[in-house]
């Protein structure tokens, strides 16, 4: 069973790719969070959990969710992190999380996909994004085939240096991510057409549409789905993002069809 959390679709793309190639099924943690559904997962196949890298870590919301969830059937777990550049300390954290859950850790793989961190700088335009996705395909194929074969992915052993580094920076990053609330700095321009897309893509229902305008509440998890998904580029962050691109990953089925037609 492939479980994923996503802001702008990269982790869904990776999860759906792996599900397709391994013949497994995909479950959206966004849907579960949005609809407050039970965190009970049962599968005879290994669990594969995919999410983006946030500040060199797996998203805190996903870690909390895994801690609370009940897994039955298979006792094996693989982790996939999609990232703009580097996975930081995800591998160390996730090996520990698997141990804490009493599950067999089958490894971690960081997959480079387009960077969606628009509040920090520009994000790729569509042709650059397409190129980065193409480059990720062999990695996704290799990881899927290893999962199908029941093999370990990533490193067999995590070095003591990586563990020490992870524990040193762990507290600091977590404090930064806990304090950060992107939605406090979002502004909405008159270009807003009240389509409701920002509210529907928000995984934690942090946005409500009132008087034809999105209103941001206090529980933002900084996924940047809203600002990247607005069809009018009406959401901006602290006056910095007006001239930046917006990035949303293509839908996997559509991408696959186009890909097959091209071959
Ligand atoms: C809050 C935040 C922090 C991020 N931090 C990192 C990071 O530390 N390293 C990195 O390589 N990418 C980082 N990124 C980029 C995302 O991990 C990357 O674009 C990811 O594939 C997005 O996945 P999604 O489309 O499933 O949300 C960050 C993105 C966000 C929104
Ligand atoms: S997605 Fe953009 S246009 Fe649609 S309601 Fe939100 S801010 Fe307005
Ligand atoms: S309000 Fe926060 S959590 Fe919701 S979509 Fe926007 S960035 Fe993500």
Give a quick rundown of the structure:
The protein is of the alpha/beta class and 263 residues long. It has helices at residues 10-22, 29-34, 60-68, 90-100, 126-148, 160-179, 197-201, 225-229, 252-262; strands spanning 2-4, 26-28, 40-43, 47-52, 70-73, 76-83, 104-112, 186-188, 207-210, 213-216, 235-237. The protein has a domain at 2-172: Flavodoxin domain (Rossmann fold, 3-Layer(aba) Sandwich).
Oligomer: single chain
Task: Tell me the strand percentage band.
Answer: 15-25%
Spatial order of strands in the largest sheet: 2-1-4-6-7
CATH superfamily of the domain at 2-172: Flavodoxin domain
Which H/E pattern describes the elements? EHEHEEHEEHEHHEHEEHEH
Q: What is the helix fraction of residues, given as a range?
A: 25-40%
Rg computed from alpha carbons, rounded to a whole number of angstroms: 18 Å
Bound molecules: flavin mononucleotide, iron/sulfur cluster
Structural class: alpha/beta
Keywords:
binds iron/sulfur cluster; single chain; alpha/beta; 9 helices; 39% helix; 19% strand; five-stranded parallel sheet; binds flavin mononucleotide; Rossmann fold; globular; two-stranded parallel ribbon; 263 residues
What does this structure look like?
This protein has 263 residues and is an alpha/beta fold. It has a domain of 171 residues: Rossmann fold. The protein is built from nine helices and eleven strands. The protein has a five-stranded parallel β-sheet, sandwiched between helices. It has a two-stranded parallel ribbon with strand order 3-5. The protein has a two-stranded antiparallel sheet with strand order 8-11. Helix 1 runs parallel beside helix 5. It is globular and about 55 Å long. The model has no long low-confidence stretch (mean pLDDT 93). The protein binds flavin mononucleotide and iron/sulfur cluster (SF4) (2 copies). Flavin mononucleotide binds next to helix 1 and strand 6.
């Amino acid at each position: 069973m492939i479980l994923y959390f996503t802001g702008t679709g990269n982790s869904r793309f990776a999860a759906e790719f792996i599900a397709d190639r391994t013949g497994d099924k995909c479950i959206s943690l966004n849907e579960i969070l949005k609809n407050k559904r039970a965190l009970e997962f049962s599968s005879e196949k290994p669990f594969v959990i995919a999410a983006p890298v946030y500040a060199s870590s797996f998203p805190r919301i996903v870690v909390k969710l895994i801690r609370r969830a009940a897994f039955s059937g298979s006792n094996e777990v693989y982790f996939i992190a999609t990232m703009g550049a580097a996975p930081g300390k995800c591998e160390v954290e996730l090996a520990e999380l698997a141990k804490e859950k009493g599950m067999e850790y089958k490894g971690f793989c960081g997959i480079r996909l387009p960077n969606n961190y628009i509040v920090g700088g520009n994000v790729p335009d569509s042709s650059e994004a397409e190129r980065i996705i193409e480059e990720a395909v062999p990695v996704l194929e290799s990881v899927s085939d290893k999962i199908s074969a029941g093999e370990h992915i990533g490193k067999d052993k995590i070095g003591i240096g990586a563990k020490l580094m992870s524990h040193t920076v762990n507290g600091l990053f977590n404090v930064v991510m806990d304090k950060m609330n992107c939605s406090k700095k979002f502004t909405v321009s008159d270009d807003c057409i009240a389509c409701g897309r920002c509210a529907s893509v928000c995984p934690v229902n942090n946005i409500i549409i009132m008087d034809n305008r999105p209103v941001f509440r206090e529980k933002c998890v900084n996924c940047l789905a809203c600002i990247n998904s607005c069809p009018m580029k009406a959401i901006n962050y602290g006056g910095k993002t007006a001239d930046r691109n917006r990035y949303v990953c293509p839908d996997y089925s559509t991408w696959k069809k186009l890909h097959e037609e091209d071959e």
